[in-house]
Amino acid sequence: MALQCGIVGLPNVGKSTLFNALTSAKALAANYPFATKDPNLGIITVPDARLDALAAIVNPEKVQPTTVEILDIAGLIKGASKGEGLGNQFLANIREVDAIIHVVRCFVDDNVIHVDGNVDPIRDKGIIDLELILKDLDTMDKRIEKLKKGTKGGDKQELKNLEFAQELRAHLEGEKPARSFTLDEAFEDLYKELYLLTAKPILYVCNVDESSVTSGNEMTEKFRALVADEDAEVLLVSAGIEADIAELETKEERMEFVEEMGLTEPGVNRVISASYKLLNLITYFTAGEKEVRAWTIQDGWKAPQAAGVIHTDFEKGFIRAEVIKYDDYIALGSEAAVKEAGKMGVEGKEYVVNDGDIMHFRFNV
């Protein structure tokens, strides 16, 4: 699946450093604005302990995790919506992604310059929010003009669409993101057509120093309070430390480093898992001697759609799905034991796949 998260923020907040730690793609990370002009794309393995547990039982020839795409987008500055600092190019990159990871700097280091001279995550968030909203207002103005032309013939639906667009514009004008607008389902298609930047789901990553990774600091506390009413997760990560962890050769070395920090897993794991969730994705598994594999689908997909991720023929000729719940597989220790216990479900075309389902598809083409 080609869904993407885009990393955004002001210059020098740690976006590219975090991206490097996430992907080991070694994007340019420099101590000056606009070090990243073109977006860097990384394909990131999604950590999932369930995959390891299944592999330990099945002992397959191959284990294949699922992935998510992350785009490192160059830093925005004040005036980006008017083209400042190559703003139009950067905003166009944001328009292409499906969700946003907004990195804010919550550490002080005189050796790392700040584009506005001092560190203030609340001000920084406000700058980014305003630039995205201004760009969305420009989008709305263009659509409203088009809708006005369409209402000249007295078309009732176009009049309703115009009223909706004007209400949405007023919401944005109040410096509120589109994602907080109460959407009437009747206008869902029109809303999606607008591709508003502030309609995208968002995850906040507070980039902190080493001493603040576990409990945060005064800046992160203020930031959490600021976004408390938003439907958004806030993660504390030290991008610099994550970059150091990514340099270590083995999983054992990385985990030793993490435990010394007082953490249970690398911060990048939490960012990846949260990004996966932000994109409304879930995982199902296939488990056999040749391969134990995780497959990515949209939450709410039915069995034939899920089968189509493996091969289009599976969806076209779908007959049924044999489904084992993850907990049953782990508890009973094998597919044969699950069948013997009567715990394997046989599901048809209307079955909605659950996160963690272990599936085998029957099809006929």
What fraction of residues sit in β-strands? 15-25%
Number of helices: 14
Overall geometry: flat
User: What class do helices, strands and sheet pairing give?
Assistant: alpha/beta
Low-confidence stretches: 25-37
Mean pLDDT: 88
Describe it for me?
The protein has 365 residues and is of the alpha/beta class. 41% of the residues lie in helices and 19% in strands. It has helices at 15-23, 49-58, 87-96, 121-150, 156-173, 188-194, 218-226, 239-247, 251-260, 267-278, 303-310, 312-316, 326-332, 335-340; strands at 4-8, 40-45, 62-64, 67-72, 99-105, 202-207, 233-237, 281-287, 291-298, 318-324, 345-347, 358-363. A hairpin with a 3-residue loop joins strand 8 (281-287) and strand 9 (291-298). Helix 1 packs parallel to helix 8 (239-247) and helix 4 (121-150) packs antiparallel against helix 5 (156-173). Residues 25-37 have low confidence and may be disordered.
Name the features.
alpha/beta; six-stranded mixed β-sheet; three-stranded mixed β-sheet; 14 helices; 12 strands; flat
Write a brief caption for the model.
The chain is of the alpha/beta class and 365 residues long. It is built from 14 helices and 12 strands.
